[in-house]
Amino acid sequence: MTDSRIPPPDLAESPSESFLKTQEPRLWRGDGWTAQVLKNEDDDGWAVAMIKDGEPEPALVGPWTMGRDKKNPKPLDGNAFSTLVKTASEFVRRHEQQLHATLHQRITVTARSARITVSLDIVPDEDHPHALLSAHNEGDEAGDALAQVRVAPSFKLSRASAVAWVENDFCKPTER
Questions:
Q1: Which are the contacts of 99, defined by CB distance < 8 A and separation ≥ 6?
Q2: Which of 5, 31, 80, 165 is the most core-located residue (most Cβ within 10 A)?
Q3: Domain locations in the chain?
Q4: Is the pLDDT higher at 2 or at 109?
């Protein structure tokens, strides 16, 4: 598909206007989402774009069913819109969970005769991306950090790298 999937400027109205409930055959707005049926420029079919209110681009674009005449798209309706909202919301939720898991990693290791939890928190700053590597005693309810160092966002946290860091007196790991 080409960029024609992205909604035309008429969807970029003022915030108070753009989020009003709309129920048209090719455009539905409500529940924090907009569904727009668009011509698929790559073939003879149709696609539907799901845009979360306030977002500039669709969260999800998928194929849309042809109508009975096999030429025009099937009109949107309440059931279809509800299903699309549920699907798009789930897609966004899974994406957010995956991003969180990528940016915040944690592993517990045994080193120096203690259970130590080592965390890697990546800060995806555009100008100065970095990560914070930190260690806590597993049983320490106070949550006091044993150590914290700034590392490259490309640092790979593994059981081996965590044990090596702890056993090296929490010295900043060398960049590879």
A1: none
A2: 165
A3: 3-87, 103-167
A4: 109
